[in-house]
């Protein structure tokens, strides 16, 4: 199971980094609204990881599928945050200031605030998408076997 979420977590991270660098190349990386596509990238990666896990296990348990989704998104979130930290502290320190200026805040929050928001957005996106996808992938109790569990 760990191979599934590690592999897909890394794939999600690579796609997120490629999308960020492509938007930087075009000059749109200063607009936070374009980070909405990150949710689509997260969703596609988490869903593929959960389907891959389900395909390789005859008995698909809700807990294991949920774990795969959370760990896949968690790994992607942490790795992408590390990349963004290196990018904002070492490569382009003016990028974080332009993002903070676009937020129109009255206090100096610094790059750490952006990194904290990246982590919070990544984990919350992961949680919501995992919950939604498990509703699609879980086994139904509307079967003869499931009728045994009714009152």
From TrEMBL:
Pfam families: DUF4199. The chain crosses the membrane at residues 5-22, 28-49, 70-91, 111-133. Coiled coil: none annotated. InterPro entries: DUF4199. It comes from the Bacteria. The keyword Transmembrane helix applies. The keyword Transmembrane applies. Keywords: Membrane, Transmembrane, Transmembrane helix. This is DUF4199 domain-containing protein. It comes from Jejudonia soesokkakensis.
